[in-house]
């Protein structure tokens, strides 16, 4: 096994670890969305952002290693299977990690799409609720000239604001 292959396996393992944590956080965000827990959503998003910062240098290292394989071969694009073949190995940890990484990234993408849809649906629901409340609540001022409280109000100050 060459030094580049060992490094590439290590880098892909690190990417898998980071993206697995991002997937875990995305699942937790789903629960937070369902429970309408904005504080938890904020916490999870901040934690997820930290992982995204961690992945950039790892991906940069992976690109350097794969660029070396490209430089040493006349191919314009190489897959992990191609790299394993170049290294003369038939079944490799490299391909296994690559498959797991791809599955993890696909799960993250699907879950992010689902979460975005749930958030959009919640926002639409709240907009409809606010619109209904705006129609039924109003505010004229609070008291008549006689000092009596008015029972009906027009144009609520709180609910007239656009979100």
Helices and strands, with pairings:
Elements: H1 3-34, H2 38-72, H3 80-86, H4 93-136
Helix pairs in contact: 1-2, 1-4
- The radius of gyration is 27 Å
Report the biggest beta sheet as strand number plus sense, adding barrel if it closes: none
CATH topology: Methane Monooxygenase Hydroxylase, Chain G, domain 1
Instruction: Kindly name the structural category.
Output: mainly alpha
CATH class: Mainly Alpha
Overall domain count: 1
Which architecture name does CATH use?
Up-down Bundle
The residue fraction in helices comes out at: over 70%
Q: How many DSSP E strands?
A: 0
Low-confidence stretches at least 5 residues in length (pLDDT < 50)? none
Element-by-element helix/strand order: HHHH
**What is the tally of helical segments?**
4
Oligomer: single chain
General form? elongated
The fraction of residues in strands falls at: under 5%
Question: Averaging pLDDT over every residue, what do you get?
Answer: 84
Distance from N terminus to C terminus (CA atoms, Å) equals: 59 Å
